[in-house]
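Appendix B. One record, verbatim.
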Amino acid sequence: MNVLVTAANRTEQWPSLSSGIIHDYVSGKHSFLTAIVPEAILALDAKSIFEILQQRLGDDTINQAFDWQTSVASPIEHKKDSSWIKSVNMVGVNVRTIGHFWNVVKYALSLSKAQSAIHLLPIWEPGVVSSLYGMASWHINTAFFSQELAELFPDLDTVEKQLKVVVNLLHALGKTVGMDVIPHTDRYAEIVLANPHFFEWLRRKDLDIIDHKADLHIEVMQAIHSFVKQNGSASSAIDVPGDWQYFYSPQFTEDKRLMTLFGDKADLEGRNHRREMLVDYLFHLGLEPVPATMAPPYRGLAVDPDPAAKTIDYMGRVWRDYKITQPEPMSRVFGPLTRYKLYERKNDNADWEIDFESPRTFVWEYICTQYGKMAEAYNLDFMRGDMSHIQMRPAGVPLHADLYYDIHRAVKLSIQQERPFFAYFGESFLTAPNYMGYGDEIEHLELSAADVTLGDLQSMVVGSDAFMQNFSRYVGIHQTRQFSPCFTMMTADKDDPRFDKFYLHGNSTRFFVGTFLGDMPSYMGLGFECRDRHLIPAPNEHYTKLYVFQIEEGPKATQGPYIWGKNSALYQQLNRIKHFAEEIAGDFQDLTSLWLLRPDPTAGSPVIAWTQAATPKWLFIAHLGTEPILTNAKVPLKLLNGKIRSAKLVFSTREDNTHLFQDLARSQHWLTLPPLYPGEALCCQLS
């Protein structure tokens, strides 16, 4: 069904949150507030949400959850390793799209029990263009503070307390919660300016990089110390050390250094003013952190002379973009970001060459410690590794990994010392070797101890040649490798006008496969469940991608809050799938799948079919193509070895399917399916 956005098709026309719906939820009949779109749930006041949670969870649990000084047990904390994540259905939430942390709890009430993991996009203070992935400090983003929650519970008067309570509530609701682990920061983050020796630096004069020696950070450290001596400490309680080496020593801790440089954590405006002063001081010395890069060859930078690559800021300072001197197809330079300097450099960095045999262990320890503190403080269950595809060794993936092979691996293993269940979900797209990283990306993910990776099905039209080929490949990787690719429906960075073509059809089919493929993980970005079909690009406010950053002018600018889709047909289809999944959950979740019709890598057939390997009870079928209606399609039975006598059609994503509750015709060789419409998915009960 084609559903277009019209002025009349508004949220108010959707079903209201009736007492019957609430009763079915709080009584445990359903694991989510059924038939109510997330936008309507988010509109409920804090008191109403609290009362719903209290009835659902009980007084003891709700009291524990709202005590920010305690932790509600995670539903997987009894696990002895991280393999649990290899079959979860995960939902990604950009908190900025829904305003604040408290709304994550509201949104979670729209998620069924099967959607058991919530990935929070970066939650720290952002830097340039307010990019979530350009973290400016280790402080939690105060923009995610909920005033309505603080008014209901005055004790929850900081964003940190609110985040702790939100994680408690999500755990009480049976959800695991994960954070991002980011191997870079904003170029002029407080982290960078307080620890310049953790990063790589260059000196620029107009269009030339005049210095990028390996130890240039020493001059930066001296310059920053001189700035503080000239301008005084930002904290009256801390005196400026007279010696720059002591200023950066372990004895003068990072907390003291941050206070001296920027002032009290609570004074965001004051901290930003001091940071602006320091950036200006370094700018006039020509000192800049080296921008982060992506994809081979990674190294070798030059100033981009293109006039379009020049920016003049409000103070008249001229900033320049950079480029890779010998670029390959996916080479990128991310001007707002800088990467941690994890290894020493060869030949004083004259040739931009990394010495992978000389890890800078103190930087690794710092990163692991900081993320470990986050995992412990907020009782987190897993991490999403940003840019997990990064592998900079030109020789490719080595045979063995030491402690300093990969920063995501190091963070995971470090946290697992105290939290053995802590899992690693990698952002990697399973591209060809030497494309996004040197060597084979699959080998890199295995060596870096990833449990799950994102994959790239979200960037392909359902049923297309590329989709079928990659889906088939992912099934093979899942069955033969140490990690599993996700069946990804949509991510925050693919909900963008450029990618509208991926979501014009097949969305309920994506959700069906992601839900019922019980032994393979899936990932869904917030907003997918009612995303409108954009036959022409919609205004920017309709796309979650454009809330990963905050830009006020230009083609990526947003004006006002995120606008939820009004695709009632899609939401109702997904709602029916969630209800049916709840009815049969114990018979397919976490069970090894047996493929009867694997995804056809030649795209010759658009039909897939699978059941459970040990005890087949349910047969799932999906038509992934866009045309035509298939008649006389068959599912082979050889692999079932005569285990079934009949197959009754009990569910279809097409509500008007006239063959429901009928036995399918069968022979000793196959089941014959009823007419199968494009995008239709079925379930048969086997006996």
